[in-house]
Design goal:
- The protein has a domain of 193 residues.
- It contains three helices and 14 strands.
- Strands 1, 2, 3, 4, 5, 6, 7, 8, 9, 10, 11, 12, 13 and 14 form a 14-stranded antiparallel sheet that branches.
- A hairpin with an 8-residue loop joins strand 1 and strand 2.
- The radius of gyration is 23 Å and the shape is globular.
């Protein structure tokens, strides 16, 4: 009887050890697997593609009544740590407003969550036009970023990502704006892509107040990522549950809730921005494919 118990305990211990080793291999493999790099890279790309819209939306809604003035732009440029040029400051001439924002990464070296939308260093230039009061239904705005002066974001754990092209914004309801990326390019240190996305962001709170601070916004939509020079096998993404972001100090850089499906030529990934279902302001996401899952701290 004792021998039988000893053999049973030994067998169980061996089984537990094997299962443990197998689990370690899966976890280590998931952290090292090259096929997860596509999902990680996507997270940086989607982050960079949204930053320009954050800057413009913050200013557009602030100058939505009559336009912009020097005092207002001076305050906004300090918040965004940029220099500005007002090309057309009023809606009263029926030409809308137009302004230019120029970023120098030296200006963003000292990060304060009250003054900035992202802790990362960035540089480049945005040209923004707004055709009428930004809060009126059917009002349109356009962000142009030139290839010669792209918007560049520096990620310490990833490297430089630069974007250029056109982003079109259109008010489709009082709390909702449609965002369309047009001829938009994303370039990292290793790859260059065409980014085509049709998104809608809607305010859960704060759409009738100036700027983005203390606002909460959710994103819906889909898009694709195609390597430049290639037409076949694009990577496609679809937002499965709305991505929610709160523009509060220390929180504006992260999606608090939501998930999306990223489909590449080789694999499909579910990216969950709230893996612990607590709505925290965190860059931790859970990436899952058919075999394994990976918890990743991204941008």
């Amino acid at each position: 009887m004792l021998n039988s118990l000893r053999h049973l305990k030994l067998a169980l211990a061996t089984l537990i050890c094997v299962v443990g080793l197998f689990s370690c291999q899966r976890i280590n493999h998931s952290n090292e697997a090259e096929d997860f790099e596509d999902a990680k890279e996507f997270l940086y790309f989607q982050h960079t593609s949204w930053i320009a819209v954050q800057f413009a939306e913050h200013i557009n809604s602030t100058g939505s009544t009559l336009g912009l003035n020097v005092q207002m732009m001076d305050s906004l440029s300090k918040q965004l740590k940029s220099t500005y040029l007002i090309i057309d400051s009023s809606y009263l001439d029926n030409n809308g407003i137009e302004y230019e924002l120029a970023f120098n990464k030296q200006n963003s070296g000292n990060y304060s969550p009250f003054e900035n939308f992202t802790p990362y260093q960035f540089e480049g230039k945005l040209n923004i036009t707004v055709d009428q009061n930004y809060r009126e239904i059917n009002s349109k705005s356009e962000i142009n970023i030139s290839e010669s002066n792209p918007l560049i974001v520096e990620y310490p754990n990833f490297g430089r990502v630069k974007v250029y092209g056109t982003i079109e914004l259109e008010r489709i309801s009082a709390p909702s704006i449609r965002v369309k990326y047009k001829d938009f390019k994303i370039v990292s240190e290793d790859d260059s892509y065409h980014w085509d996305a049709d998104l809608e962001y809607s305010w859960l709170k704060g759409f009738d107040t100036d700027g983005l601070w203390n606002d909460q916004i959710q994103f819906k939509g889909n898009g694709k990522l195609v390597e430049l020079g290639e037409k076949e096998d694009p990577s496609e993404f679809q937002i499965l549950s709305p991505l929610t972001k709160s523009f509060e100090p220390g929180c504006s850089d992260y999606f608090q809730m939501g998930s999306l499906l990223l489909s590449t030529k080789e694999d499909k990934f579910n990216i969950d921005f709230d893996p612990f279902k607590n709505g925290s302001c965190s860059s931790l996401v859970r990436i899952t494919n058919e075999k394994v899952e990976l918890e990743f701290t991204g941008p």
